[in-house]
């Protein structure tokens, strides 16, 4: 096969583990090629996070050769042909050429192969079936390079068949459209029809896999067109019932206006879901759920955005401000995001010691401090300590609201 491109300046070609693994394979008479995302992103000049190598060597042979080369080999997915090779610092996944012989739409039974073309044919998109040798020569058995350069996300072979093999490919299709597709050309009709026809199948996927794909999709430079298409073909609501994608396009525009980096959390908040709903649908972490809750509270609270930055953090206030502004027809104001970090850094100047005495320790102290802090925030953090003490003492002197007449102690 003749190379179709060169990747001689890709920094990951010098990865020590990859070079050692390729040398060990070649020394034993086996093929070894970088494949998939590292080649795709390398050709685009984009960040490469993971290195994958495809080979005609069987997993047991890969493990033996790696150990002989002084590397640690872990059979992370031997049944599917994958061996993790590492020197303790760098990690490379080495997978035997394979083809799917049976699948239930989530898991596949594979047969190992000695043929790169067979391995290429079982992949999802043509732009992922690009291979490169250790010198950076790129091989393209299925015409993926032309698709990559044209921003055309194209299933390999029949789109419906590729989706039937793994229903997660529906979400991967929209994610790849967001990251690599040409928005002017848009998605292919055949691919969209296949995704719409099989949309119900995404409901059987694990929430962890759905969450991972949605994070990646919403982190794209502009996920709005792909997410809108997801909604139109009935995929989005099956993953996130009640989600509305209309605010994404103006939100992405405002991110550019204010030079704010993309954030999947901000874009998730703009979909209008309750944080608990998003957490349940995508199995978000506790920290991610708390972050969404902070944005929701900032959206719901009254006052200025610096005030929300003090209450909920600068990031939550910034995201809420952008989401609200995205829903307004008015031009974005110049100073919309000014003062948020300064407000977050403010520290309320009073403590209990400032009001004891004259107040005796008790609930009145907390009530007084809370009232003073609220007044301080509403005044733009500009009230003096003396004025704050006056407000705290006045609030503490007011009778406490006893609550409803039929309220009973919690321990009754």
Task: Explain what the structure shows.
- With 412 residues, the protein is of the alpha+beta class.
- The strands form 2 sheets. An 8-stranded mixed beta sheet has the order 1-10-9-2-3-6-5-4. A two-stranded antiparallel ribbon has the order 7-8.
- The protein contains 20 helices and 10 strands.
- It is 46% helix and 10% strand.
Jot down its keywords:
about 400 residues; 20 helices; 10 strands; about 45% helix; disordered C terminus
Structure at a glance:
The protein contains 20 helices and 10 strands. The chain has about 400 residues and is an alpha+beta fold.
Q: Strand pairing plus helix content: what structural class?
A: alpha+beta
Morphology call: elongated
Main pleated-sheet profile = 8 strands, mixed
Q: How many helical elements?
A: 20
User: Rg, please?
Assistant: 28 Å
What is the first-to-last residue Cα distance? 81 Å
The stretches of 5 or more residues where confidence is low (pLDDT under 50) are 404-412
How would you write the strand order of the largest sheet? 1-10-9-2-3-6-5-4
Report the order of strands and helices: EHEHEHEEEEEHEEHHHHHHHHHHHHHHHH
What's the rounded overall pLDDT mean? 92
Q: Report the count of strand segments.
A: 10
> Which percent range describes the beta-strand content?
5-15%
Helix content: 40-55%
């Amino acid at each position: 096969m003749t190379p179709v491109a060169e990747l001689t300046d890709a920094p990951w070609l010098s990865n020590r583990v990859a070079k050692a693994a390729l040398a060990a394979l070649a020394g034993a008479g086996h093929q070894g090629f970088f494949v998939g995302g590292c080649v795709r992103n390398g050709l685009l000049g984009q960040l490469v996070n993971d290195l994958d190598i495809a080979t005609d060597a069987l997993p047991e042979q890969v493990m033996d050769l790696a150990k002989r080369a002084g590397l640690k080999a872990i059979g992370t997915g031997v049944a599917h042909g994958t061996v993790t090779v590492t020197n303790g610092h760098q990690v490379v996944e080495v997978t035997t050429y394979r083809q799917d012989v049976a699948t239930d739409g989530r898991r596949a039974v594979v047969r190992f192969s000695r043929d790169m073309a067979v391995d290429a044919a079982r992949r999802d998109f043509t732009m992922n079936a690009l291979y490169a040798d250790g010198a950076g020569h790129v091989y393209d058995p299925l015409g993926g390079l032309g698709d990559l350069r044209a921003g055309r996300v194209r299933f390999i072979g029949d789109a419906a068949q590729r989706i039937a093999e793994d229903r997660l490919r529906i979400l991967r299709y929209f994610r790849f459209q967001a990251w690599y597709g040409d928005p002017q050309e848009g998605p292919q009709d055949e691919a969209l029809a296949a995704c719409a026809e099989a949309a119900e199948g995404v409901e059987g996927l694990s929430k962890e896999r759905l969450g991972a794909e949605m994070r990646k999709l919403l982190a794209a430079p502009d996920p709005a067109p792909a997410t809108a298409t997801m909604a139109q073909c009935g995929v989005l609501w099956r993953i996130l019932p009640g989600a509305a994608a209309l605010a994404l396009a103006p939100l992405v525009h405002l991110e550019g206006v204010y030079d704010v980096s993309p954030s999947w959390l901000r874009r998730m908040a703009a979909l209008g879901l309750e944080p608990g709903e998003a957490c349940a649908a995508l199995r978000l972490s506790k920290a991610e759920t708390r972050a969404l809750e902070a944005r929701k509270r900032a959206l719901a609270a009254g006052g200025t955005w610096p005030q929300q930055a003090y209450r909920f953090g600068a990031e939550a206030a910034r995201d809420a401000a952008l989401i609200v502004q995205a829903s307004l027809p008015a031009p974005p104001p110049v100073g919309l995001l000014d003062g948020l970090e300064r407000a977050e850094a403010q520290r309320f100047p009073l403590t209990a010691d400032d009001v004891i005495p004259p107040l005796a320790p008790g609930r009145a102290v907390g009530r007084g401090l809370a009232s003073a802090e609220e007044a301080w925030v509403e005044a733009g953090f500009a009230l003096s300590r003396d004025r704050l003490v006056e407000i705290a003492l006045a609030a503490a002197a007011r009778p406490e609201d006893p609550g409803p007449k039929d309220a009973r102690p919690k321990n009754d």
